[in-house]
């Protein structure tokens, strides 16, 4: 029965991923129905705290977007990129990484991809290099963002470990991913022929219309900011810092009559809802715009995915807890990096860091993996790039008019494969080293 039930779980994940959008979460519900009504498995409790934390964080981030805060960040990023054209392969991923840290979603990379493509082309840098690293960094930055759905979920699942706070997680993921991306950028900076020697680009330059287009000057991405844009960024940054500080210093959180101290789930929810309220009050937001933005839509998708798929996975793993622990627990204890491979493979299948975290991290905890190892392997949830169907990947190919950024003849030999694999592998290795020092 175990194998049949496993096939049900995998089928629901694959079908949900193929449907896309909220389909992943909805198919999780279908899987739960089959496991409970057909096989008689008792559903576990859905991850309510994790879901509500994500809702609160996404609400605040969506308010910042509605206030024009992301436009302000785009404006700042554009200036940085244009002032450092020769270092574009390193500056581009740095910008998208910071963007993702602020917004909690990699989709903000769309905003700066046209600038990266143009600046690299004008300075003679092969656009494939900065564009591929920028897209990968926009994904990897998820595990370094205090307000990303996956990070919030990770905090919830590791809450049972003594001394593990949001600051603990970020204290490992931020330096490890910066090291991983930096090393990957060094290698990527040497990949492929120089733009002037690229045969596809030279062929296109024979067309007078194409040559004229290449020589056109483009204007700024953001012409005018909304009045409350800068204030919204300041409020959001203050809220994010407050969450980290409250996690690092539990004594700052109130103690109630029962003697219990306020948990981090409630702390995050309260701070982020207050941040959203402050933006509505002081940044001139049209509240109808909050739910229309990309940040809100992507965040709510993550909530539904975690609701369905994480609940499905937890129910399945919970029903076979003893067998899984005896069967693979010893192997994972001896070779903890094997769990990173499982995280990567599932993330390729579901295209969601939050859903991957919600599905497999509880299993890692149940198998007895130490918190440091789980945090070190956290970057492995970023397998989006493996199959080149992720939005920013397609967009970057479209923005690169030189033709250097592409999907290869065999699909998997695309421009993002090597930068992505190097970034993940280097980040996980660095994570193990850093976690061994600080934990």
Automatic annotation (TrEMBL):
<dbReference type="Pfam" id="PF03605">
    <property type="entry name" value="DcuA_DcuB"/>
</dbReference>
<feature type="transmembrane region" description="Helical">
    <location>
        <begin position="363"/>
        <end position="387"/>
    </location>
</feature>
<protein>
    <recommendedName>
        <fullName>C4-dicarboxylate transporter</fullName>
    </recommendedName>
</protein>
<feature type="transmembrane region" description="Helical">
    <location>
        <begin position="164"/>
        <end position="187"/>
    </location>
</feature>
<dbReference type="GO" id="GO:0005886">
    <property type="term" value="C:plasma membrane"/>
</dbReference>
<keyword id="KW-0813">Transport</keyword>
<dbReference type="GO" id="GO:0015556">
    <property type="term" value="F:C4-dicarboxylate transmembrane transporter activity"/>
</dbReference>
<comment type="similarity">
    <text>Belongs to the DcuA/DcuB transporter (TC 2.A.13.1) family.</text>
</comment>
<feature type="transmembrane region" description="Helical">
    <location>
        <begin position="233"/>
        <end position="252"/>
    </location>
</feature>
<feature type="transmembrane region" description="Helical">
    <location>
        <begin position="416"/>
        <end position="438"/>
    </location>
</feature>
<keyword id="KW-0997">Cell inner membrane</keyword>
<feature type="transmembrane region" description="Helical">
    <location>
        <begin position="50"/>
        <end position="70"/>
    </location>
</feature>
<feature type="transmembrane region" description="Helical">
    <location>
        <begin position="333"/>
        <end position="351"/>
    </location>
</feature>
<feature type="transmembrane region" description="Helical">
    <location>
        <begin position="6"/>
        <end position="38"/>
    </location>
</feature>
<feature type="transmembrane region" description="Helical">
    <location>
        <begin position="264"/>
        <end position="288"/>
    </location>
</feature>
<feature type="transmembrane region" description="Helical">
    <location>
        <begin position="295"/>
        <end position="313"/>
    </location>
</feature>
<keyword id="KW-1003">Cell membrane</keyword>
<comment type="function">
    <text>Responsible for the transport of C4-dicarboxylates.</text>
</comment>
<keyword id="KW-0812">Transmembrane</keyword>
<feature type="transmembrane region" description="Helical">
    <location>
        <begin position="90"/>
        <end position="113"/>
    </location>
</feature>
<keyword id="KW-1133">Transmembrane helix</keyword>
<keyword id="KW-0472">Membrane</keyword>
<dbReference type="InterPro" id="IPR004668">
    <property type="entry name" value="Anaer_Dcu_memb_transpt"/>
</dbReference>
